[in-house]
């Protein structure tokens, strides 16, 4: 089971109650829009959103960038697509996707890596590199690079079933410095655009997965001392 949570669609649109969730999702749309405006002049482009869920990010970006036209494709393991999103959906694994090399002017990867197995994360980065023709934007949720172990260990305990609603088969909050090491090894030309630390990861879990009071308290307890997440955004130049 690798459920994204009962309130995931609202969360991915940026419609959240908690400041932590807004900081994660709502704030990334103006940042992505600015990066796109700085790097691509208004025109028609191909866009691939890897791990794009039901199209929430694409839908928000299309609204934020009315001067652009995108031929958009979403690849996600999960089925379903929101009504009215102007994009094609391919249900499948990013790692085995059949898109040709350099087939997307713009590739997006927002908060996908930590929700797959640790050993798959570099393979996903390699697909970003392979498919990207011009630029990619990677936004990542990870344990703080200066002290990653506490959150990495606590989150594995959360997902092991101690909080039943959060039980999942895989996932790992790899720290940003490790992601950068992998990108270097893959020969990716990356530039860090933003790095911030968002407090109260427990609030994010509580809201996104609609935890009851007992599960919310257990989550807070397990995350005690490491209840926050580092958000890093990179632009990749092909
Ligand atoms: C936290 S959600 C983020 C959704 C979306 N990118 C956003 O920011 O709104 C992570 C998504 O990545 C997808 N995912 C993770 N690993 C994947 C893989 N190897 N292939 C396809 N989808 C994957 C999950 O199914 C899930 O929909």
Describe the structure.
Strand 4, helix 5 and strand 5 (132-142) form a beta-alpha-beta unit. The N and C termini lie far apart (35 Å). The radius of gyration is 17 Å and the shape is globular. With 238 residues, the chain is α/β, with parallel strands linked by helices. The relative contact order is 0.17. Strands 3-2-1-4-5-7-6 form a seven-stranded mixed beta sheet, sandwiched between helices. The chain has helices at 8-13, 19-26, 28-39, 56-64, 118-131, 149-162, 176-185, 201-208, 213-222; strands at residues 44-50, 69-76, 88-91, 104-110, 132-142, 189-199, 228-237. The protein has a single domain (8-146, 170-202, 228-237), classed as Rossmann fold. The structure holds S-adenosylmethionine. The site of S-adenosylmethionine has 21 residues, from helix 4, strand 2 and helix 5.
